[in-house]
Design brief:
Length: 100
């Protein structure tokens, strides 16, 4: 038998077991981290329209993600649905830095 001919079955352990069944929290969701990083690159404030343009996501999808970030205390949304400003909180700034 050569090294390339193993008799072991392929592994299904490509996903860490600790994270497999746990919910995807903002600090582990790269899409939400990207939104926080975009806002951080603009001195901690941006608009939902700018986020939509930058990410190629529809406003509805941006709103869903912003609501998750706001519920977690990562952003504060100021204004109405049309003309809102997204402000990073201290937790959001930490999220933008990758949790460091």
């Amino acid at each position: 038998m050569t090294a390339s001919e193993t008799n072991r079955p392929e592994s299904d352990n490509s996903v860490l077991q600790a994270y497999e069944d746990s919910p995807l929290t903002p600090d582990r969701d790269p899409r939400l981290q990207k939104i926080a990083q975009f806002a951080a690159d603009r001195n901690g404030a941006t608009t939902r329209r700018d986020l939509s343009i930058e990410s190629d996501l529809q406003l509805r999808e941006i709103d869903e993600r912003l609501n998750r970030l706001a519920a977690g205390g990562y952003v504060e949304i100021v204004g109405d649905d049309v003309d809102c400003i997204v402000l990073l909180t201290a937790a959001g700034q930490q999220l933008a830095r990758g949790g460091r």
